[in-house]
Give the backbone structure.
Amino acid sequence: MYGLPSDFHEGYATIQNGNGQSGIIDTLGNLVLPFKFVRVNSFQEQLATVACDFWSWGVVNLKGEVIIPCTYDDIGFYFKNGLNRVGKKQEAADCKYALIDTLGKLVTPFLYDELGEEHYSSLTIYKNIMPAKKNGKWGFINTEGKETIPFQYKFVSQFRNDNAVAEVDTLYGMLNLKGDTLVPFTYEFIDIMSDSIYPARRNNKYGFINSQNEIIIPFEYEYVAGFNEGLGFACKNGCCGFINYSNQVIIPFQFEEEGYGPNKFWDGLAWLNYNGVWCYIDMSGKIYKR
């Protein structure tokens, strides 16, 4: 008996047997990679990262051949643009990170506290640059390991639409690809993962700004989430609904506060809490209870 498989990537999915070992199957259910690893991540760019005994990490190809030995203490879930992040413990609980290519060759030395956006398990590369943390500060490097934006921030996000969020002294602003400050560091929060305009918090109220620091939607909400598919989630007086880019209420404020839902529309549906029951709604506001 096999355990539940993961989602398919590039025609392959990971699966476990009854002994806690992982392998890989194809879309016909054929076992492509035998059950001999502690963990296997799905294929991406025709490679999969695997954990051997004692949670040391390496890489296999589509034939199941180990092409990068299990010598690392940490590794990104997937390769991105032919690169991955790998970590080696320098002290008891301290990993330093480097970039490797698909042959396992080091692209950078083990210099970094982290590579890729914080809390993500894979590289986040945008136009050849990525977040990196060094000596306790965040900045950006390119795929050759060259510093492109200095290591001077408490936090940085990945880039999206040529903009990134950064934090200085507990306040947030936005940078461009050159490291110029687009939005000054005057906000308590900014979310980069939104269409066109960005959720922000000031004086404990939420609204939306653009990358020119213009206020597009006033700071009048208790909470907002980013726009997706033309609508943005917003909460006022303890109830939540959806607004458009003109701050018009499109779906009435009748849902529970943000809770654990994604709070965004995906393929025309959103997952929200209505009167204590989780349900789908469509973009007309129609509620579909389970």
Remarks:
- The radius of gyration is 22 Å.
- The chain has no helices and 29 strands.
